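Render this sequence as a predicted structure.
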Amino acid sequence: MTQRRGGIKRSSQLTFRRRLFIARLLLRGPASAEDLIAAVQQELGAEGYPSAAVAALKHDLDALKSSYGCRISFNREAGGYVLEDLGTLALLKGSEPVREAIHAIEAHFPAGSSDASVAHVHKTLDYLRLLAALES
């Protein structure tokens, strides 16, 4: 790392790795800024974030939005940042077989069932929709 005016220049590989890690964390569900920072620090150690971690996290979230088209919002009721769309990071983007599989699974596990396992199935389907950049 080289010293520059305004702070330390982090390696682009580290920054890219950190941003992908944040996207993976948000795929699991909503997360607060504190939770995201702690997870990044645990994953990347001292290299994770500088002392101004909150500002750096916000910069990372903005970069995910502008560079990859991710839709990330803050939702107080959900408990933090919510990933609504992976943008160009979607791994299965436009996959017709995934779309058809989701519809077939939904037909076999209708929403609103009192069976707790059905709720897990629908949470998994929401996860697949994010990966495939499909609307609900």
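Summary. Residues 20 and 64 are 8 Å apart (CA to CA). The first strand starts at residue 2 and ends at 4.
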